[in-house]
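Lecture 7, part 2: worked example. A protein chain together with NAP.
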Amino acid sequence: MNVEDIKDGSEGPKMILVTGATGTIGRPLVDILHAEGANVRALTRDPQAAGLPADVEVTEGDPSLPGTVASSLEGVTSLFLHPRAAGDGAAELLALARERGVKRVVVLSAVNVDDDLAVQPSRYRGDRNKEVEEAAVGSGLEWVSLRSGPFAINTLHSWGSQIRAGDVVRGPYATFSEAPVHERDLAGVAARALLTDELIGRKMELTGPQPLTHEEMVATIGDVIGRPLRYLEIPPEAAAQSMLQHGFPEPFVEALLARYAREAGQTARLTDEVGKILGRPARTYAEWVADHAVAFRN
Ligand SMILES: NC(=O)c1ccc[n+]([C@@H]2O[C@H](COP(=O)([O-])OP(=O)(O)OC[C@H]3O[C@@H](n4cnc5c(N)ncnc54)[C@H](OP(=O)(O)O)[C@@H]3O)[C@@H](O)[C@H]2O)c1
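Predicted complex, written out as structure tokens:
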């Protein structure tokens, strides 16, 4: 992929607006697009705090309040639509984008988006992946949906403080299995969807390359950071108490533990989409840990 791919003779150079640009996926996406020589504009509610590279164009707005994004859409041809950032504002934002000449939307979504809404834990934290994906598909724009599996970085959020403090990770359901995906691989696929026409009209399930249980993931972190770590299974009730104490909403905790209970002992579902799209193997969980080893050590 090179900068020639992102130009078409009739319409001049493309401009990509990235919503959620300071987040888990948005930040590496901005990096990749910038490195590819694409014209990229990074949207944030707070440019001062964004911490994006100095030579990236940063623009202020809140995608959940589409009126605040109107001027940022000037000259934009493609939009990366972040579901957490856009939330209930997605349909209005897309209508405005279309009116302003945007041609394509690439939306982040989730592998469980077609499940019963009541069993999707992220909904209880306010995420609206289904509605945002539907808004993209119904927008009248060219669209691509990235249905992501679990982000590998969830494990840093869940276990990082325990690992920094000791060698035992206490958590529920040791045999629950996932195929964690590296955020740079998701961002790489998003860049491909924005810069080429290869993925238009596709809803792609994107997972990491290996199923790993909680127990195996913790052992992998230990191998990579050079300390023997052990996952100590605790009863779901104790895990629930701890999550509630850390401020997670009760319905979220219930839905998450119910999912673990339903799926524990099963092998996580895998797809090979990331490797096929990027033309190289998806990054392994061990590679992801190596990229974040400092955060587990300090
Ligand atoms: N974690 C997983 O395993 C997983 C898997 C599949 C799908 N997903 C979905 O992916 C999304 C989370 O992605 P992420 O981790 O990249 O998100 P994130 O880092 O939490 O948020 C991305 C950016 O959105 C902006 N933002 C956050 N909350 C906002 C709000 N209420 N209103 C307006 N802007 C807001 C923030 O930017 P500024 O502060 O700079 O404006 C933030 O940096 C969710 O929809 C989740 O359900 C997650």
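The pocket of NAP is lined by residues 20, 22-26, 44-46, 50, 62, 64, 82-85, 108, 110, 122, 127, 129, 148, 150-151, 154 (CB under 6 Å). The chain has two domains: 3-149+181-206, 154-179+209-269+284-297. Keep this in mind for problem set question 3.
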